């Protein structure tokens, strides 16, 4: 009976030992994915800021500039691209909407970001764009990969339509959570005019014909929860200028927007709660359950060997043969 029980325990030990790597290396890449129908809204503010007043053509100090950034999963486009890509794909239609202190639009930049649902690597397909301009992204945008590493990544900048390294600057604690801190600085770069201008009748072509050029620089900062790869906080020290404006505006350089953009407090709290719940799910797949199964396999193996040893020690001995009486 003990030998039969030891065989059962040995079979369970082998099963647990086999399931541990299956969960980590097979199930995790197939289960840990960004849902294709995700919707997320984030509000950022610059307090105070400098903003161009288009009615007076003067840069003015304002108490607040608000940026509403929305990410909306496009399920139909995801399914269409998946048929050709042969993998799970997420399509985010995003919009960065900037408002002045009066609530009026300053700028609006739409994007379509197409990426692998698990790795967050870009997937190149028809429709990938920034403000109507076709682009070919290299590197990540908006979100880091699951199990983010302590290294530099390529990060796509929507203003310049190019990718550049975003540098890992160390591990920090943010609101009681261990995070990786990343920084990227984009030097002064000439960038396209927005397709939608805040003043009716003014188009990018009119500004371009007048000789005006738009320049931009920013210092981008992210605090990333490494298990989920989700940003729990983000900031930018952002500046835009119009140059070659002397003939039209009386000076060569005019500040369009300048400010330190920070995520609003209520959105930091809600994102932190969401990341904490998703972090537990990922840890179950990559750490808690695989290690628990490995430990359980060792315990079951030990019990199986112990029962087998006991069954051998206590096995009944055959009776000794009777001596033959002398003749």
What does this structure look like?
The chain is of the alpha+beta class and 327 residues long. 31% of the residues lie in helices and 39% in strands. The chain is built from 5 helices and 13 strands. It has helices at 2-31, 75-85, 204-209, 246-249, 265-313; strands spanning 39-53, 58-62, 65-73, 89-99, 105-116, 129-130, 133-134, 153-157, 162-174, 177-191, 213-225, 230-243, 253-263. Strands 1, 2, 3, 4, 5, 6, 7, 8, 9, 10, 11, 12 and 13 form a 13-stranded antiparallel beta sheet that branches. A hairpin with a 2-residue loop joins strand 9 (162-174) and strand 10 (177-191). Helix 1 runs antiparallel to helix 5 (265-313). The radius of gyration is 30 Å and the shape is elongated. The chain starts with a helix and ends in a 14-residue tail after the last helix. The mean pLDDT is 89.
Topology:
Elements: H1 2-31, E1 39-53, E2 58-62, E3 65-73, H2 75-85, E4 89-99, E5 105-116, E6 129-130, E7 133-134, E8 153-157, E9 162-174, E10 177-191, H3 204-209, E11 213-225, E12 230-243, H4 246-249, E13 253-263, H5 265-313
Antiparallel strand pairs: 1-2, 1-3, 1-13, 3-4, 4-5, 5-6, 6-7, 8-9, 9-10, 10-11, 11-12, 12-13
């Amino acid at each position: 009976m003990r030998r039969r029980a030891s065989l059962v325990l040995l079979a369970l030990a082998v099963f647990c030992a086999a399931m541990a790597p299956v969960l980590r290396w097979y199930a995790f890449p197939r289960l840990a994915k960004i849902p294709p129908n995700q919707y997320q809204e984030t509000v950022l503010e610059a307090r105070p800021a400098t903003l161009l007043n288009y009615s007076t053509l003067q840069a003015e100090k304002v108490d607040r500039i608000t940026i509403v950034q929305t990410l909306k999963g496009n399920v139909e486009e995801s399914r269409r691209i998946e048929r050709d890509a042969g993998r799970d794909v997420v399509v985010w239609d995003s919009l960065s909407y900037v408002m002045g202190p009066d609530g009026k639009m300053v700028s609006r930049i739409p994007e379509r970001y197409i990426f692998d649902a698990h790795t967050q690597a870009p997937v190149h397909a028809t429709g990938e764009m920034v403000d109507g301009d076709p682009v070919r992204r290299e590197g990540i945008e908006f979100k880091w990969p699951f199990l983010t590493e302590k290294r530099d990544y390529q990060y796509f900048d929507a203003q310049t339509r190019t990718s550049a390294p975003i540098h890992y600057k160390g591990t920090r604690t943010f609101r009681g959570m261990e995070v990786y801190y990343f920084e990227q600085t984009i030097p002064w770069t000439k960038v396209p005019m927005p397709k939608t201008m805040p003043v009716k009748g003014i188009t990018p072509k009119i500004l371009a014909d007048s000789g005006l050029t738009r320049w931009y620089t920013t210092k981008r900062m992210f605090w990333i929860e490494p298990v989920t790869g989700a940003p729990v906080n983000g900031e930018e020290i952002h500046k835009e200028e119009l140059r070659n404006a002397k003939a039209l505006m009386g000076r060569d350089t005019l500040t369009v927007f300048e400010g330190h953009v920070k995520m609003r407090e209520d959105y930091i709290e809600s994102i932190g709660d969401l990341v904490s719940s998703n972090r537990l799910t990922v840890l179950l797949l990559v750490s808690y359950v695989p290690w628990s199964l490995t430990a359980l396999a060792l315990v079951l193996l030990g019990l199986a060997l112990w029962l087998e040893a006991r069954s051998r020690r206590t096995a009944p001995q055959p009776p000794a043969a009777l001596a033959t009486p002398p003749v």
